[in-house]
Structures are given as structure tokens and as C-alpha cells.
Amino acid sequence: MSKTPKLFVMFAVMVVSGLASAVAQEAKSPTVYTVVNDENTPDSNGHFNSGSVYVNGAYSARIVTGSYGIDGGGYLGNHSVDIAVINPQMQCVFIADAGGVSGNGPGDVYAYNVATKSGTRTMSGLGYNGNLYGIALEHWGNTLIVGWAGSGALETFTIGANCALTSSGSSASGMGLNLGTVDEFAIAPNGLFVAATYEDGSYGVYPLNGTTISAPAQYNSNCSNPPYYAVPVGIAISPDSSAVYLDCLYGENGALIDAFTVSNAGVTVTNGPINAAGGTPVNGSVTMGLSPDGTVLYIVGTFSGAIESTNVNGTSVTPNSCSNFVPPGYNSEWIYPGTIDVLGSGAGQGLAIPQTAFDTTPDSYLELLRIDAKHCLSAVTQGVDANSMYALSGASYVKQ
Fold first, then answer.
1. In-domain check, residue 5
2. What is the pLDDT at residue 228?
């Protein structure tokens, strides 16, 4: 899901000491701060779950939650980390602990304030069985929405003093038309609605008014019909909140994107299968990211390691002149690319993407990629997330 960048003031200094040189560099050029959910379980050498912190792609610190994550990260479309900088005294990192304090659920959300170096754990009656599916998070303003995939519910919380979460008492069913549970969701940039996908091939649009979320209008996706039989997972919403894009999990090579306008939400246009000018085809795509200007969609091939750059115009998604890019280390150091954050639009900007460990290797990674003038990609740096095998979800912000 795409998030609007906010000023991430002095993040590294407040998380860990000894980064004076990095802070000095911030004054000269933008700095990328990333937190990745490590998804540690009781089998992870006795380690509690944590959020690994990176500065410009280099590992710098770890935020320990005191609870446990989930093997494999849950639904791959889930964003299980969110960052909300409310003000200099409230620099909030939210980390989903799908396994909870027992490791077997119910799940919880750990709210950490970088400014005070302290955190609190929030549980909910809707959080049971979160360890089976994972927990999705996203904020808009002072509202955090939690997708409890296990119970199939979307619940809103108010972000309060010291980043503590208080339930608003408002929730809505996260069950699809065919009773599949919520897979992923995204909040519109205008804050007026939430779009969600479900594991049964349907999608929904929920009215949102502050912390009040209402029952959705729901529809079956076009890509779930013959000949594709695909399932929409990842979501992106245009900067003006007029169009929604659904990344359809498809059993063949090529990206498959359903798109609809909010004014006519029941009609989806299927784009694809989209195949790039060259390179390894996208396969098993469940995560994607839209550029802040809404013109380029970057699609991640979960089962091929490839990332595709496509042009966007309204509900149309088409290949551009770029070959698909597979970051270094695929099938040797890492096996699955995770969620993607687009850090800016145009040449010189970049992407941040976690990569989960390959086979029995103990480490996951964070990869920073650069965008060129044609919207093609190249590798910049790879940071090591030591002793974390399931790091598939992250959140990134840029400090100018």
C-alpha cells in the first residue's frame, strides 16, 4: 500500500545512539528510514518479534516487541508495519505481532514511540487466530486501521499520547462476498474510504469518516473469472483517490491488474497479462507500489523475484520500455520479495523492498533500488537483517 511521506525527524538518533555521521549526512541529502517486521516466532532461537531499523538501507537497530510474529509473515500482501509521525513528540512505529505473547495468538499490535523509546501492546477481541493469517496495518492522520485477518474484521483505533492506541469502538466485517477473510486493504489519500481485497476473489469499498468505518459495498473481481481464475491481493490507490488498482494473484507468467474508478466501483477493468520488454517474467504477483504522482506502478513477482515497471493512465496499466529487474541474491541469499515502498516519482528516486531468507539461510534483507529517467530499476544497496527468516513487510519514509 502506498503511504504519503511524512517528516521522519531524527529517527535514527532516537532509536539508537552512535549515528552522528548519518545525521550529519541528512542535512546534505534525503535519508531513507525503513522498519521491517522480523516475524520472529517461538522457534526463532528464543527471540521475541522485533522491527529492524535501517538507515539508507543499512541495518542500525532493532525494536523488540515482547510478543511473537508468524511463520512466513502471513498473507504476503499484508503490510504488518506502519509509521506515523504525528509531531516531534509522537514518532510512532506500529508492528503487528500475529502470534501474540503466547506465540499461538491472539495477535496484538506493538506501538513504539521513537521520541520516548517506549512501547505499549494493544490487543482486541477481534484479534483471535491472527497467527494463522497475519495482521495488516495502515494509518491516516490520527487513525490506525487494523485488519485482523484471522477474525475477518477491520477495526479503527485512535493514536493518542505516546503513540498509545485506543479502540474507537468502530469496526466492520472483513469477510468477502464468498466468506473469504480480508487479505489486504489501503486507505484512500483523501481519507474518505478504504479499499480491501479478500481471499475469495472479491473486493470491497468501506466508507471512512475519521475513526468511523462503515459496512462495505462489495463486488466480485473481474480477474477472478475465466480464463484467469485469479485472486486480487495487493492494492494501490491513485493520489487523487479516483482510481483503485488490484494486484491479482495469477498462476501464469505476467502481471494481472484489475482497476476501477471509485465513481463506478462495481466495474473492474482487467489489464494483462502484462509482460515487460525483457527480463524474467513476473509470476505470482501479490504486492505492488504506485509512484506518488500516480503514473508508474511497480509490480513484484513473489514467485519469480522480478519487479516490473508499468505505465498508468486512469484504469489503464501497460508495459513500458523497461526490462523486468531481479535484484541480486535471488535464489541464493533470498527467495521471496515482500511489500514495496515507492519513495518518490521520477529519476533519482527509489524503492525499498524486504527480501525473506532462502531455504535454511538465517538472514533476510532489505533492498534499495534506484529509478532512472525511463522508470527502469537498478540495485543501490542491500542491508542484512540477521537471524530473521521471515521479514516480508516493511514501511519506509524519506527525510529531506
1. no
2. 93
pLDDT of residue 22: 39
Of residues 223, 160, 224, 237, the one with CA closest to residue 194: 237
Cα separation of 376 and 320, whole Å? 9
CA distances from residue 184 to 31, 108, 174, 176, 296 in whole angstroms, order as listed: 28, 17, 10, 12, 21
Q: Which residues is 187 bridged to in the sheet?
A: 194
Cα dihedral 303/138/311/399 (nearest 10):
-110
Amino acid identity, position 28 = K
Give me the number of domains the chain comprises: 1
The CATH number that applies at residue 388 is: 2.130.10.10
Could you give the CA distance from residue 212 to residue 183 in angstroms, rounded to a whole number? 21
pLDDT of residue 5: 36
- Residue type at position 84: A
Tally of CB atoms within 10 A around 169:
10
Residue span of the structural domain in which 247 resides: 11-399
The Cα–Cα gap between 79 and 289 comes to: 12
User: Domain for residue 286, yes or no?
Assistant: yes
SS3 of 231, please? Answer: strand
For 15, the enclosing helix (H) or strand (E) is helix 11-15
Using DSSP's 3-state secondary structure scheme, residue 167 falls into strand
The whole-angstrom separation of Cα 267 and Cα 262 is 10
Nine cell digits for residue 354: 524486504
Q: Are 297 and 289 in contact (CB under 8 A)?
A: yes
> 3-class DSSP state for residue 162?
helix
What's this model's pTM, rounded to 2 decimal places?
Answer: 0.90
Query: What contacts 359, CB < 8 A, 6 or more positions away?
Result: 335
User: Domain for residue 4, yes or no?
Assistant: no
Q: Does 344 reside within a domain?
A: yes
Facing residues of 379 across strands? 369
Distance, in Å, from the CA atom of 204 to the CA atom of 198, rounded to the nearest integer, reads: 8
Strand (E) or helix (H) holding 187: strand 182-187
Q: Which residues of the chain have pLDDT under 70?
A: 1-28, 45, 72-77, 129-132, 359-360, 387
